[in-house]
Design brief:
The protein is mostly beta strands. It has no helices and five strands. The radius of gyration is 14 Å and the shape is globular. The two termini are about 20 Å apart.
Amino acid sequence: MWWVGFQTVTWTGEGGEPTWYETFEGEAKRGFCPTCGSRLAAIDSDIPEIGINVTALDDTCSPDLVPIHASFRDNAVHWLPPVPETEHSTAG
């Protein structure tokens, strides 16, 4: 999955706002499309941004959408180019 962080989000489209489920009480919740159930977003209490699954965006070609961190790097599929070794960044 490919996530990007935003300070604010305006939900558009057929379903509007995601259906939210608290995954860890008071700490984290996940948002799903109310129409198809696709995972769209994540909010965690220790991160000041809302994480959006990039595949939920209308335009994924922005130069700002360049991966800067890869989790579980050792489990990556061999046919994708690796993300350079970096530290987690909250740069917007």
